[in-house]
Amino acid sequence: MLKLSPLVDCRVGHRAYRYCRAGRAAGVLFFTTGLTIASLVYGPMLGAFLLGVLTKRANQIGVMVGMASSILIMSVNLVQDADRLDVVRALGTVACVTIGYTVSLLAPHSVAE
Predict the structure, then answer these.
(1) Between these two residues, 29 and 71, which has the higher pLDDT value?
(2) 0.70 exceeded by the pTM?
(3) DSSP states of the chain as a string?
(4) Is the CB of residue 78 less than 8 Å from the CB of residue 40?
(5) Is the pLDDT of residue 87 over 80?
(6) Is the separation of the CB atoms in 77 and 91 below 8 Å?
(7) What end-to-end distance do the CA atoms of the chain give, in Å?
(8) What is the per-residue pLDDT across 35-49, written as a single tens digit (0 to 9) for each?
């Protein structure tokens, strides 16, 4: 385990404290911003999982198009209303499943050997 001197440890903690204070003073909540950015992939990941588990027709092209379109739809909705993350995630999941399944139906289906 890495041993740091108490002086270095104190400086790192003080620097982190100053960054948090500066962020709070500027009106920016780093935690909320991080969760907002990370939540852009939660809906498409759940949609891709459900698409693979619940359907036999899903293929790679459909899942990738569904995830990309879901991220795009979620980005537009987050810009318009950033306070409703739960609704935006649910919308991303539904968009990924419906668009991904539709594209999977239209794309050629390859038979695994």
Answers:
(1) 71
(2) no
(3) -----HHHHHHHHHHHHHHHHHHHHTT--HHHHHHHHHTTTHHHHHHHHHHHHH-SS--HHHHHHHHHHHHHHHHHHHHH-TT-HHHHHHHHHHHHHHHHHHHHHHSPPPPP-
(4) yes
(5) yes
(6) yes
(7) 50
(8) 777 778 888 999 999
